[in-house]
Design goal:
The complex is a heterodimer of chains A (220) and B (291). Chain A is α+β, with helices and mostly antiparallel strands and 220 residues long. Chain A is built from 4 helices and 10 strands, in the order ααββαββαββββββ. The radius of gyration of chain A is 21 Å and the shape is globular. Chain B has 1 helix and 20 strands. Chain B has one helix spanning 2-15, and strands at residues 33-35, 39-47, 64-66, 81-83, 89-93, 98-102, 108-113, 118-123, 129-133, 139-142, 162-166, 169-175, 181-188, 194-204, 210-218, 229-235, 241-245, 260-263, 266-272, 276-283. Chain B is globular. The chains are: A alpha+beta (220), B mainly beta (291).
């Protein structure tokens, strides 16, 4: 006798779940549809631009007006190649040049907090900018990059393509740029320890636990 | 016919370098000597707090500094080192803008103030110390007393070029003591279920022994995350495999720039953890412990 109401409840639950799933799929599809399309060549060109950008540190760029504890990585008059590392930063080359000319601090580490009075880019800001998301502010960190990048079902040691990323959620992300014949890999990254964006060859052991990511807006 | 071919193949393979090593290794590839960690030197580190700057004075010179890192920022601290002729260690201490020297028992000896953060340090072929400034990439040369030598001429350490040919083998170029090219070392990687990922030539000593780092992973379909094993192999002057270290511990707190060094037949690994800088040592001159 009670089976009909129960069946109705089950039907309602199933319908509800279906609607929820549809909404989620739709939302995800919308996010992907909104992602700017880009080619792998464009991704690498953006990485090079950030890594090869030359600038001069002036005395006014050694201090941060919003942090009395701030300590710069550079000295006045130094010529540097590579956009400075700024924790929480996502500046483009053009934005960085403008801020440096205005006397903002060049780069900053997490111990000083996210400094609005400093210029530069951090690891996830760098990778998302390379993927063509320069206008997104700092919407993506290593923890939610998965919203805009899939985890490909390939062998990371042989099938990654230039422009993919290696990500350790909550920690760090680098842009993969190629394999070397000795089996090491080339990456570009906004490095805190090197205080700037750099491209270099490195071994796999550095990336133990990292996962490959492939930007969903890539035009293959 | 097939049986004859197999026998011929076996004969050819047995004549190749790498298959005539003298002793066996439990857990490792067959007929390879496995060296365990002989010693670990432990040097304490201190966590640098926000705004700390090394002003000297009451700061303990024997302490190396690390940062704790943050969400989306890796911890920083000692990431490079090398071994001096007397067996003491020179360690880059970038958060204190210096090189710190410790003896082989972890006793602090002295510091060389640099005025910049260094993230790579190496002893050159002409006994000078080459230091890379972390934030600019500029190379600086120091003499053995730690004085900057702006006009010094130095010779960078020579390393043989390496190539991974298949998941089971590769080659590493090498030079003889006379500087002439010698036949390359053929690296055969026969560990069951494992695929060779990378080869890195670390050093060739005066006796012609070559030290090569190998990275490997599980053969076949890869795990979703990067999963790597690493060992260092020793080959003799004829290119024959002598043995390999036990698997290197790769649980770093601070990511190394220069992880491995070789000095007088010993392999050294820098491993900076949250509480100490460990230097793991494999003494390959002491023979194989598993006869």
């Amino acid at each position: 006798m009670n089976s009909l109401p129960n069946l109705r409840l089950v039907m309602r639950a199933v319908t509800g779940l279906s609607v929820l799933t549809a909404v989620l799929v739709c939302a995800q599809t919308t996010v992907i549809a909104r992602l700017p399309r880009t080619s792998r060549a464009e991704i690498l060109a953006r990485a090079r631009k950030l890594a090869e950008h030359g600038w001069v540190c002036n005395a006014s760029n050694l201090n941060a007006s919003c942090s009395h504890r701030y300590r710069s990585d550079w000295k006045a008059g130094q010529h540097i190649t590579g956009l400075p590392y700024r924790w929480g930063g996502a500046d483009t080359v053009e934005e960085f040049d403008k801020k440096i000319a205005q006397g903002l601090a060049a780069g900053a580490h997490s111990q000083f907090g996210v400094l609005s009075c400093a210029a530069g880019v951090d690891c996830s800001g760098f990778v998302t900018q390379c993927w063509g998301l320069a206008g997104s502010g700092h919407a993506y960190s290593t923890s939610n990059l998965r919203d805009i990048a899939g985890e490909p079902k390939y062998n990371w040691f042989s099938d990654m393509k230039p422009g993919d990323a290696l990500n350790l959620a909550g920690s760090h992300v680098v842009l993969f740029t190629g394999y070397n014949h000795d089996g090491t890999i080339n990456v570009c990254e906004a490095s805190g320890s090197k205080a700037r964006v750099v491209c270099h060859a490195t071994t796999w052991s550095r990336f133990k636990g990292y996962r490959p990511l492939q930007y969903k807006g890539i035009d293959e | 016919m097939a049986r004859l071919s197999a026998l011929m193949l076996l004969f050819i393979l047995s004549a190749l370098p790498g298959t005539t090593a003298p002793v066996e290794s439990p857990g490792g590839p067959p007929n390879i000597c496995s060296y365990p960690i002989s010693q670990t030197v432990r040097i304490p580190v201190a966590i640098r707090r926000a705004g700390d700057a090394d002003q000297g004075g009451d700061t303990d010179a024997a302490l190396l500094w690390v940062t704790s890192g943050a969400k989306d920022e890796l911890p920083e601290g000692p990431s490079s080192f090398d071994v001096l002729e007397d067996g003491s260690f020179v360690i880059a201490d970038p958060l204190r803008d210096r090189l710190a020297i410790f003896d082989s028992n972890a006793k602090f000896l002295q510091e060389w103030k640099l005025g910049f953060a260094a993230d790579s340090v190496s002893i050159t072929a002409n006994e000078l110390i080459l230091v890379e400034e972390a934030s600019t990439g500029t190379l600086h040369v120091l003499d053995r007393s730690g004085r900057l030598q702006p006009d010094a001429y130095t010779v960078l350490p020579q390393r043989g070029e390496a190539s991974v040919l298949t998941p089971k083998n590769g080659i590493v170029a090498r030079k003889g003591r006379d500087g002439q090219n010698r036949a390359p070392i053929e690296v055969r990687f026969d560990r069951p279920g494992q695929a060779l990922l990378s080869l890195e030539s670390l050093a060739t000593d005066a006796a012609g022994n070559s030290f090569i780092a190998l990275e490997s992973t599980v053969e076949g379909k890869a795990s979703p995350d990067v999963n790597v094993d690493k060992v260092v192999r020793r080959y003799d002057s004829e290119g024959l495999l002598v043995g390999e270290t036990s698997t290197l511990p790769l649980d770093y707190f601070v990511t190394p720039v220069d992880e491995l060094r070789v000095h007088r037949g010993s392999v050294y690994q820098l491993q900076t953890t949250k509480s100490e800088v460990r230097i793991n040592i494999w003494k390959t001159n002491e023979g194989c412990p598993h006869p």
